[in-house]
Write a structure and sequence with these properties.
This protein has about 725 residues and is an alpha/beta fold. It folds into three domains: about 40-415, TIM Barrel (Alpha-Beta Barrel); about 525-610, Immunoglobulin-like (Sandwich); about 615-720, Immunoglobulins (Immunoglobulin-like). The chain contains nine helices and 34 strands. The strands form nine sheets. An eight-stranded parallel barrel has the order 3-4-5-6-7-8-9-10, surrounded by five helices. A six-stranded antiparallel β-sheet has the order 11-12-13-18-15-16, with helices on one face. Strands 22-21-24-25 form a four-stranded antiparallel β-sheet, with no helix packed on it. Helix 4 runs parallel beside helix 5 (about 220-235). The radius of gyration is 37 Å and the shape is elongated.
């Protein structure tokens, strides 16, 4: 079945640009973009190293194609049963050459450590042959996504899915001299990690352990498998990164939680990063799941262990409409047309970045289609092997699918953002069903990825920060657009990929576009002033400037003395704030600005102030006198009154040695705060006439320099005393 969409004509605000919606199927030839050279290393593919499946082209013909697509990671298996098919008989030649070739090409490697050889298997299991022979695919007998028949729980599993012998021994127990079994898994992992320690820095422990077709042990067994592998890898290569084996999630959504529960309760867990550095996830076909499921897994991780980075180590969608590969081109559940698969690439890539994923590894580089003799039948014994669904960005004959160019669009434009934000949730879709993921501050400016998640077409009003922008479709074709009334009007066709659970379940959004507003010059920012204020605070003011989109937000940091800078305010639009000073010392402040395109300035120079929460007080009590007229001023005839003079804190404790006299003067350094000057006539208590005691507040205030305070203390006359009877019952 083929769907052909007409031309989508934008209005005058798009300068009459004509955006074609490509036809599905094989109608449109694919023209690649220029080779991607400036990628940020976010994206990779699985199995880019394969030789020509038809034996007509020497070397590794898919490797330069995926490099040109922007892939910088290759993920493939270091199968135990291929590397050590019999105990202590190792076969490294294929992997040695492969690792050398990939590293020479500039490719990073993610190795999958998995598959128990028959001789190390446990329990009642079925021994399976290693196919194809190593001369046809050197040392690479099996690709993880080649799903062997999933074995029901009540049937005997294949041996390569079973927990290895000796798994619960110490990871480095490799002898029987101590009277117990060898930990064969620990020995294998250490051997491989040590051999390739200079070339392979990332290891994924097993593949899809939550599927019985790959792991027939329990979640507790997998926790032990991961623990042993982590200890062995770190011993062999301390700077290597260990990944939790990529989980398929949907069949057993709690599997990873069960494993994490075991790791959390392991007494050695906290000292060993809970035995993994990165969570591996496999997600297919539904572009929204790349955001939703990753966020759910991240939340689930935090219930057990500190949050770890997430890598998508497999992601893809099979195509159903490629008649050049196979003849039965009919849609089936979770499949897509080639054009829909291209939209899936951009949508899944954008959602992965929005969810904070660290690596995006597409499954797969090329189809490795199972019909190796091209007779229309994948079941020819001894000849056919490989994938039963076409997932590749590239066909086996090295021709390109639309998804290949969409991958190039992603790795060309959607790189090195200062941050990524998303709008248009999946739980409650906004009006029109539009999804927007924005890449801020990229080398090309602010870029938003837009698509429609529902089948009804819409025109999206995209807020403009600049008067003009560039629209890019998934084929890499660019169109100039112009804002009207502060927005760009972007027509978004409806979704068509309804091969989900029901005919109304759209697993991929519609045509996907990039809106690029080109502002790549960062703003400037500076601290304008740091002034003292009370209570003990520093009032900090700052400013910024930008020549294009304009200032958006600011970040502020503070540093005590020569210590480290720490965040104070983030993403604030204000330009003045009061910082409460917690203690005496030197306090420094710096600022950086964000413009409305997401460009971020460098941190400004720090501005420092010396702050003391103590103040030197010079207090002069000029006179203590009898204030007959009560005006507070010593008049002629108002006599000095000798008194006990105390200067006390809020608790009533003397902070200066008391004295007796009619005047007093002292200088002292004191913590800021409220103090009391107590003046008590030496004749007190006495019957009238006389003078009454007096208490006066003295504030030692936050600031610089010496605080000088002068007081004259007038004492009120003691004219009468009233005595009240004390009645005791």
């Amino acid at each position: 079945m083929h769907r052909t969409f007409g031309l989508l004509i934008l209005t005058a605000v798009l300068v009459s640009a004509v955006l074609p919606v490509p036809a599905s199927g094989n109608a449109r030839p694919v023209t690649p973009l220029p080779p991607v050279t400036g990628t940020d290393g976010f994206a990779g593919t699985c199995y880019s190293f394969y030789p020509d499946p038809f034996g007509q082209v020497p070397g590794r013909p898919f490797l330069p194609l995926v490099m040109n697509a922007g892939s910088r990671w290759d993920r493939f298996d270091f199968s135990w049963r291929a590397l050590e098919p019999r105990e202590d008989q190792w076969n490294f030649s294929g992997h040695d050459q492969l690792v050398a070739d990939l590293r020479a090409a500039g490719m990073n490697i993610l190795g999958i450590l998995f598959q128990t050889p028959n001789w190390a298997a446990t329990g009642d299991c079925i021994q399976m042959m290693v196919v194809p022979s190593l001369d046809r695919r050197p040392a690479m007998w099996y690709a993880p996504a080649l799903r062997e028949t999933v074995t029901p729980t009540n049937e005997t599993p294949p041996c390569h899915t079973t927990p290895p012998r000796g798994l619960y021994e110490e990871w480095n127990d490799w002898t029987t001299a101590d009277g117990d079994p060898i930990n064969y898994w620990g020995r294998f992992v250490y051997t491989i990690a040590y051999r390739y320690r200079d070339s392979v820095k990332h290891w994924e422990v097993w593949n899809e352990p939550d599927l019985r077709g790959f792991w027939s042990g329990t979640s507790t067994d997998y926790a032990q498998l991961l623990k042993v592998a982590y200890r062995a890898i770190k011993a062999a290569c301390p700077d290597c990164i260990v990944l939790f084996g990529g989980i398929m999630y949907y069949e057993k959504p709690n599997f990873y939680r069960w494993v994490l529960g075991n790791l959390k309760n392991d007494p050695e867990g906290p000292a060993n990063n809970y035995f993994f550095d990165v969570m591996g996830v496999h997600l297919y076909s539904r572009s929204s799941s790349i955001y939703n499921v990753v966020m759910a897994i991240r939340s689930g991780m935090r219930e057990f262990v500190p949050e770890k980075p997430v890598w998508l180590t497999e992601i893809g969608v099979p195509v159903w409409d490629d008649g050049s590969v196979y003849s039965e081109t009919v849609p089936y559940i979770w499949s897509a047309t080639q054009e829909e698969a291209a939209a899936f690439v951009l949508q899944s890539y954008a959602n992965a970045r929005a969810a904070g994923v660290q690596r995006y590894i597409y499954f797969r580089a090329h189809d490795d289609w199972c019909d190796k003799n091209r007779d229309g039948d994948c079941s020819d014994q001894g000849v056919d092997y490989g994938m039963g669904e076409p997932f590749g960005l590239i066909r086996d004959d090295r021709s390109l699918r639309p998804a290949y160019v969409a991958y190039q669009v992603a790795t060309t434009y959607l790189i090195s953002p200062t941050m990524v934000t998303s709008w248009g949730g999946f739980e409650t879709r906004p009006s029109g069903g539009v999804r927007r993921v924005t890449f801020w501050g990229t080398p090309r400016g602010k870029i938003s990825v837009l698509w429609n998640t529902v089948p009804t077409a819409t025109v999206f009003s995209y807020p403009a920060i600049l008067p003009t922008a560039t629209l890019v479709d998934r084929r890499g074709v660019t169109y100039p657009i112009t804002a009207s009334g502060g927005v760009y009007a972007i027509p978004l066709p409806g979704a068509t990929a309804n091969n989900g659970n029901t005919p109304s379940d759209y697993i991929i959004g519609g045509e996907t576009y990039l809106v690029i507003e080109t502002d790549t010059v960062p703003p400037t920012a500076t601290i304008r002033s740091v002034e003292f204020s009370a209570p003990p605070t520093l009032t900090v003011s700052w400013e910024g400037a930008d020549d294009a989109a304009g200032i958006w937000l600011y970040d502020l940091q503070v540093r005590e003395g020569t210590g480290v800078w720490v965040s104070w305010l983030t993403f604030t639009s204000t330009t003045t704030a009061a910082y409460p000073v917690p203690r005496s010392g030197t306090w420094c402040f710096r600022v950086r600005a964000w413009d409305k395109a997401g460009n971020r300035s460098d941190w400004s120079a720090g501005v420092c102030r010396e702050v003391s929460l103590e103040r030197t007080l010079h207090l002069e009590v000029e006179a203590v006198f009898g204030d007959e007229d009560g005006d507070g001023v010593q008049a002629a005839g108002e006599i000095p009154v000798p008194s006990a003079l105390r200067f006390v804190n809020g608790a009533g404790a003397d902070v200066i040695s008391p004295t007796v006299g009619t005047s007093w003067e002292f200088t002292a350094t004191l913590p800021v705060g409220t103090y009391w000057l107590d003046v008590t006539p030496v004749s007190w208590p006495s019957p009238p006439p006389g003078w009454l005691p007096r208490r006066m507040a003295v504030e030692v205030v936050f600031g610089e320099g010496v605080q000088s305070t002068a007081r004259s203390v007038g004492l009120a006359p003691h004219r009468a005393s009233v005595y009240l009877p004390l009645v005791q019952r």
